[in-house]
Amino acid sequence: MTTSNASALASDAATGTTSGARTHARAQAGTHTAAMPVVPASDWPTPPDGVAAHDLTWAETVPGGRYTSKVLARGTRLRLRDLDGNACAHVLLYRADAPWERLNVADTVKVPWQAYVGAGHPLLSDAGRVLATVVADTSGHHDALCGTTSAAANVEKYGAGALHSPSPAGRELFTVAAAKHDLRPRDLPPSLSFFHGVRVAPDGALDSTGTAGAGAHVDLLVHVPVIVLVANTAHPLDPAPEFSTTPLEILAWAAPDGLATLPNDDPEYHRAVLNTEDVWAAEHLGKDAR
After folding, report:
1. What is the pTM of this model?
2. Mean per-residue pLDDT of the chain
3. Which of 95, 131, 145, 199 is the most buried (most CB within 10 A)?
4. Among the listed residues 169, 174, 136, 130, the one whose alpha carbon sits nearest the alpha carbon of residue 276
5. Which domain holds residue 130?
6. pLDDT (tens digit, 9 = 90+) per residue, 35-62?
7. Is 18 contained in some domain?
8. What is the DSSP letter of 166?
9. Cα–Cα distances in Å, from 276 out to 22, 53, 280?
10. How many CA atoms lie within 13 A of 112 on its CB side?
11. What ranges in the chain are assigned the alpha helix state H?
C-alpha cells in the first residue's frame, strides 16, 4: 500500500463517525489556502504600503473561474491585483441602499468622453452619480465595451460554461453572486472588465490587447456604499484556446480622506461628484449632529 493510499484510508476512518468528522473539521481552523477570504481582514499578512492592518476590511484571493462579493462603505479603497498575469476581474457595482441604481457602463464611457478606463475614470450609475473612481492603475489593460462571457459562448469555445464546470462563464458566476444580495438575473447589467485590454480598430473591430502581466493592480475609491460583485473568468476576446484564468487578489481598506483629493478636474466628472454628494448629504442630514 502506498503512503498516499494509507493517508486516504486513515482520513476516511477519522471521519467515519460524527465525532471523528467534528474533530477533523475543527483541526482545519486557522488553515489558510492559496485561494480564500481571510477573516478578519486584518490578519492578511502583507497589507499594502502605508496601510495599517486594522484598516483592512476585505482580503481575499479568488481563483480563476470563481466569484466573490462584498458590501463596502463610502470612502473604501478597493485594490484588485492580477497575481500571475492572466486574471480578468469582471466587476458590477450597486448602491447598497438603493440597488436599483447600479453601474451603467454606457454612461461610464459616454459621459467622460473616454472609452478606455484608467486613473481618474468615474464608474457611473444611470442616475449620473459616481459609484467609484479609478484612483490608481498600473495595468492599463481594461475593457468597458465587451461585457462578460455567456454559457453558450463558453460551450462553443471551451466545451463548457456552467457554474461548476472547468470554464464557467461570467454570467453564470454573476448570477450566483447577485443572488447572495437578493438580486436576480434581470438585475445584471453589462459589466466592466479589468486586466484584459480591448481597443477599437479603425474599421470598428474590437481587438484584444491582452494583459499587462503579473502584479498589475487597479484601485477604486468608493463614493457611496456599494455592493461589489466580482467574477474572475476569461474575457470574451481572450485569444487563448483553453481556459487559463489565474488568481485575483482583492484588498480593501478605509480611506475616506481620498474623497477630498479626487484625481480628475473634468467638468463632467465634477458634476457627477456633485450629484453623488447631493444624495449622500440628503440621506445623512443631521445624522452627524445626533
Report:
1. 0.91
2. 93
3. 131
4. 130
5. 54-289
6. 779 999 999 999 999 999 999 999 999 9
7. no
8. S
9. 50, 29, 6
10. 28
11. 3-14, 18-26, 105-110, 151-158, 170-179, 267-283
247 contact partners, CB below 8 Å, separation of at least 6: 34, 35, 61, 62, 63, 64, 83, 84, 87, 232
Residue 83 pLDDT more than 70?
Answer: yes
Question: What residue type is 57 in one-letter code?
Answer: T
How many independent structural domains does the chain possess? 1
E strand or H helix at 32: none
How many whole angstroms separate alpha carbon 196 and alpha carbon 236? 10
Grid cell in block for residue 28: 482545519
The CA-CA-CA angle for residues 13, 16, 17, to 5°, reads 130
Please check whether residue 41 lies inside any domain of the structure.
no
Residue 287 pLDDT greater than 70, yes or no = no
Cα 202 to Cα 44, 141, 273: the distances in Å are 46, 19, 33
Cell of 198: 480591448
* Single-letter residue type at 208: S
Asked whether residue 14 is domain-assigned, the answer is no
Tell whether 86 is covered by a domain.
yes
Confidence band, pLDDT 50/70/90 cuts, at residue 8: very low
Residue-level pLDDT at 7: 52
Answer with the residue of higher pLDDT: 16 or 122.
122
